[in-house]
Structure formats: C-alpha cells, structure tokens
Model the fold of this input.
Amino acid sequence: MEKVTYDTYNKRMLRVKGHLEATIRMVENNRNLYDILIQLSAVEGAIKSLHSNMLSAYTNEVLDKREITPRKKISNINTCISQIFK
Done:
C-alpha cells in the first residue's frame, strides 16, 4: 500500500470542503432538495473514504512500531476506534 502523506490528506479535505461549500450554496439558493441530498451524500461518502484511509494508515503505523507490545498495539487501535464511533 502506498504511503499517503499529510499533504494528500489536506488536499482531500480541501476538496471535501469545496463540495460542502457548494452544497451550502445550493441550500442558500433554494435548490431542489433531491439535488441537495445527492450532493450531501457525495460529501458524506468522501469524508467516510478519507476517514477509512486515515484509520487504515494509523493502524499500520501502530502495528509497525517495534517498541510497543502486541497487547499495547491492540489497545491503541481499539482506543482510536472507540473514540471515532462513540
């Protein structure tokens, strides 16, 4: 798996921000609710994809640390997941 940089994450977040801002403009302009919902769904999908990629990168980062015991690795990953889904 190719290592993704923070610059890549930033670019993706800026793209999501642009799509969300466009969705806000659609609401401000009283666009059709169907179109707004479709756009909002696309924004949500982009965020979920980014979230998934970052969680995967974090998991790999933790697993690659040699100085941490396997039990501590699992604990770190579980803590992160529980914070995300609380």
The mean pLDDT is 93. The radius of gyration is 17 Å. The domain at 6-84 is CATH 1.20.58.1000 (Methane Monooxygenase Hydroxylase; Chain G, domain 1).
